[in-house]
């Protein structure tokens, strides 16, 4: 067994290594002044960069977790290498040949026993890539080549992404790698081979198109394999199993090619498949990456945040592309749940035709893929629209239930300054007043249970001190206190124009008592209305309104009644206009042309009526 590496060689490795280049493979670094650099620490989660690098001294230190050292120490910590493994990795990168204490002559790279497990597994995968890519040119790989060609990928694209083919043989790769000096245990540990029932070793992948999966440094550490033949009873996609170097929760396909553009543009596009990554890169979206056989999760976020330098000062963009089907929408909502882990803004891009980027490029060209990303919308907008689309917003129950389900999404927004705007937007989409939506969002933000009584003040009526409620109250006071003056003008406004439920009940009692036009006034009239009330709340309100002063200086006159009733109707009409606009937004004008134009015509009529009421109010609004 060879001894330790000579001290002067270690010193030379340190001297010839740019620590900024080594760390930049994993962490995006920005200038921190004085020649130093900073970024997000890869060893602990943080929102503000405390990881500092000094290129002049070739050292790094994190003020958040206290870790630090030189380039060798960084590789040891970041990639779980031994000291010797880290030095050998840096020496190979710098083109240096190491010497060991027992032999002063230049020596070749250490044999298998002298190398660490990680290098052996990486080397096995590198040899497997050579084997598989060579197989792609054989006659048996024709279905694999046709698969790529049918999706718009030529030979150059296949070579750029290292596409290969696992041949129709049980142990062709295994025999090839054993001849290259890799052991039985190494091939099993790497996930390239697996034991057969007979006890012999066979290839893990067979008769499949392969994509090599690389880590941030560009080393191949696994494969994704696509089924090609109908008689293959395996899954559509088969990935390398978990190994000492392949951790699917940390891996993003295409990250090795995309990382520099992600750091440069401050943007990453998360797609769903290997061909989608290829299509995006070739179409001019070089920041695309994809997960490898697992859902997008916390560990993926940590990787991207370091590349984006996702901090309060430098907020990047994370754009998810999902299919428009139910599975894609479900994935998008899962992504919104992870939104809070990013400092930057999250978006979603969905093709109008529900095509993935690969299909879109094939059908409409490169420009369509770039336009897909350019037309992105905030993820919260998509999530809200998806949630409220499940309810019938033409009914009170539907609007209230949709609001209760959508309010927690608004409450989750990490940027609190955006919450009031989204409260207004949600109220408009639902066709509701702002006040109940605001209360529901505040209840959700405070952590009160969604089904608890504290979270259910979400009624569609305005609050008692809102302008609409105040004018309803004034109209009822005129009916009770001045029935002769209010007369037909009051009776002409129906109970449907009142929004508050207790006001609606009193208005119904007025009608049940014979209407204002037939009332003589006085205590007899007030008692008649009180007796017609069906609940105690309405009866109590009649007593209040009978003695509460009108909101006018001096004596009321017909003009004041006219203004009050116009204001009452205007509030009701504008509420119906909001509801109708919300409904129109939900109608597809192509598929439901007649319904769309009927609703649009009704909207124009209501808006004309609202303008007339505004004029009638004579400046009282």
UniProtKB/TrEMBL annotation:
<comment type="subunit">
    <text>Monomer. Interacts with DnaB.</text>
</comment>
<keyword id="KW-0548">Nucleotidyltransferase</keyword>
<dbReference type="Pfam" id="PF13662">
    <property type="entry name" value="Toprim_4"/>
</dbReference>
<dbReference type="InterPro" id="IPR037068">
    <property type="entry name" value="DNA_primase_core_N_sf"/>
</dbReference>
<keyword id="KW-0804">Transcription</keyword>
<dbReference type="InterPro" id="IPR002694">
    <property type="entry name" value="Znf_CHC2"/>
</dbReference>
<dbReference type="Pfam" id="PF08275">
    <property type="entry name" value="DNAG_N"/>
</dbReference>
<dbReference type="InterPro" id="IPR034151">
    <property type="entry name" value="TOPRIM_DnaG_bac"/>
</dbReference>
<keyword id="KW-0238">DNA-binding</keyword>
<dbReference type="InterPro" id="IPR006295">
    <property type="entry name" value="DNA_primase_DnaG"/>
</dbReference>
<keyword id="KW-0240">DNA-directed RNA polymerase</keyword>
<dbReference type="InterPro" id="IPR036977">
    <property type="entry name" value="DNA_primase_Znf_CHC2"/>
</dbReference>
<feature type="region of interest" description="Disordered">
    <location>
        <begin position="445"/>
        <end position="468"/>
    </location>
</feature>
<dbReference type="InterPro" id="IPR019475">
    <property type="entry name" value="DNA_primase_DnaB-bd"/>
</dbReference>
<keyword id="KW-0479">Metal-binding</keyword>
<keyword id="KW-0460">Magnesium</keyword>
<dbReference type="InterPro" id="IPR006171">
    <property type="entry name" value="TOPRIM_dom"/>
</dbReference>
<dbReference type="Pfam" id="PF08278">
    <property type="entry name" value="DnaG_DnaB_bind"/>
</dbReference>
<feature type="domain" description="Toprim">
    <location>
        <begin position="266"/>
        <end position="352"/>
    </location>
</feature>
<dbReference type="InterPro" id="IPR030846">
    <property type="entry name" value="DnaG_bac"/>
</dbReference>
<protein>
    <recommendedName>
        <fullName>DNA primase</fullName>
        <ecNumber>2.7.7.101</ecNumber>
    </recommendedName>
</protein>
<keyword id="KW-0808">Transferase</keyword>
<dbReference type="Pfam" id="PF10410">
    <property type="entry name" value="DnaB_bind"/>
</dbReference>
<feature type="zinc finger region" description="CHC2-type">
    <location>
        <begin position="41"/>
        <end position="65"/>
    </location>
</feature>
<keyword id="KW-0639">Primosome</keyword>
<dbReference type="Pfam" id="PF01807">
    <property type="entry name" value="Zn_ribbon_DnaG"/>
</dbReference>
<dbReference type="InterPro" id="IPR050219">
    <property type="entry name" value="DnaG_primase"/>
</dbReference>
<comment type="function">
    <text>RNA polymerase that catalyzes the synthesis of short RNA molecules used as primers for DNA polymerase during DNA replication.</text>
</comment>
<keyword id="KW-0862">Zinc</keyword>
<dbReference type="InterPro" id="IPR013264">
    <property type="entry name" value="DNAG_N"/>
</dbReference>
<feature type="compositionally biased region" description="Low complexity">
    <location>
        <begin position="445"/>
        <end position="457"/>
    </location>
</feature>
<keyword id="KW-0235">DNA replication</keyword>
<dbReference type="InterPro" id="IPR013173">
    <property type="entry name" value="DNA_primase_DnaG_DnaB-bd_dom"/>
</dbReference>
<keyword id="KW-0863">Zinc-finger</keyword>
<comment type="similarity">
    <text>Belongs to the DnaG primase family.</text>
</comment>
């Amino acid at each position: 067994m060879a001894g330790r590496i000579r001290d002067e060689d270690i010193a030379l490795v340190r001297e010839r290594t740019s620590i900024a280049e080594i760390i930049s493979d994993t962490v995006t670094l920005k200038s921190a002044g004085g020649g130093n650099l900073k970024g997000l620490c890869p060893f602990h989660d943080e929102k503000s960069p405390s990881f500092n690098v000094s290129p002049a001294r070739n050292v790094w230190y994190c003020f958040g977790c206290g870790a630090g050292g030189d380039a060798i120490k960084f590789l040891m910590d970041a990639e779980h290498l031994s000291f010797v493994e880290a030095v050998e990795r840096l020496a190979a990168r710098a083109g240096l040949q190491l010497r060991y204490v027992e032999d002063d002559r230049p020596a070749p790279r250490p044999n298998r026993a002298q190398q660490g497990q990680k290098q052996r597994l990486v080397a096995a995968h590198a040899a497997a890539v050579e084997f598989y890519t060579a197989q792609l040119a054989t006659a048996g790989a024709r279905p694999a080549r046709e698969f790529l060609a049918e999706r718009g990928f030529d030979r150059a694209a296949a070579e750029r992404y290292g596409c290969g083919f696992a041949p129709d043989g049980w142990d062709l790769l295994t025999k090839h790698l054993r001849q290259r000096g890799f052991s039985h245990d190494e091939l099993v540990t790497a996930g390239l081979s697996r034991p057969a029932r007979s006890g012999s070793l066979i290839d893990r992948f067979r008769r499949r198109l392969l994509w090599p999966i690389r880590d941030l440094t560009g080393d191949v550490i696994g494969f994704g394999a696509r089924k090609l033949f109908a008689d293959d009873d395996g899954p559509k996609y088969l990935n390398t199993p978990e190994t000492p170097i392949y951790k699917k929760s940390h891996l993003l396909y295409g990250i090795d090619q995309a990382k520099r553009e992600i750091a440069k543009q401050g943007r990453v596009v998360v797609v769903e498949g290997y061909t989608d990554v290829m299509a995006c890169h070739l179409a001019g979206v070089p920041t695309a990456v994809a997960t490898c056989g697992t859902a997008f999760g916390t560990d993926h976020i940590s990787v991207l945040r370091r590349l984006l330098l996702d901090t309060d000062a430098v907020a990047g963009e994370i754009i998810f592309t999902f299919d428009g089907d139910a599975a894609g929408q479900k994935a998008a909502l899962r992504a919104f749940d992870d939104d809070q882990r990013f400092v930057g803004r999250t978006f979603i891009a969905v093709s109008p035709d529900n095509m993935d980027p690969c299909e879109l490029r094939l059908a409409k060209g490169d420009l369509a893929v770039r336009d897909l990303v350019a037309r992105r919308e905030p993820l919260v907008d998509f999530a809200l629209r998806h949630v409220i689309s499940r309810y019938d917003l033409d009914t009170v129950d539907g609007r209230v239930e949709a609001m209760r389900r959508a309010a927690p999404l608004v409450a989750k927004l990490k940027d609190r300054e955006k919450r009031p705007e989204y409260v207004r937007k949600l109220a408009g989409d639902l066709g509701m007043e702002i006040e109940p939506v605001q209360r529901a969002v505040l209840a959700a933000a405070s952590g009160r249970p969604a089904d608890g009584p504290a979270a259910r003040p979400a009624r569609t009526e305005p609050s008692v001190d809102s302008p609409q409620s105040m004018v309803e109250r004034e109209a009822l006071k005129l009916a009770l206190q001045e029935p002769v003056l209010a007369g037909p003008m009051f009776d002409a406004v129906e109970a449907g124009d009142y929004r508050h439920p207790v006001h609606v009940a009193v208005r119904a009692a007025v009608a049940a008592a014979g209407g204002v036009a037939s009332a003589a006034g006085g205590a007899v009239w007030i008692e008649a209305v009180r007796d017609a009330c069906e609940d105690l709340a309405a009866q109590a309100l009649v007593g209040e309104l009978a003695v509460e002063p009108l909101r006018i200086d001096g004596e009321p006159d017909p003009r004041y009644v006219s203004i009050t009733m116009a204001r009452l109707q205007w509030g009701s009409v504008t509420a119906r206009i909001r509801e109708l606009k919300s409904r129109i937004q939900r109608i597809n004008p192509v598929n439901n042309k007649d319904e769309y134009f009927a609703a649009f015509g009704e909207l124009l009529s209501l808006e004309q009526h609202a303008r007339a009421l505004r004029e009638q109010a004579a400046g009282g609004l």
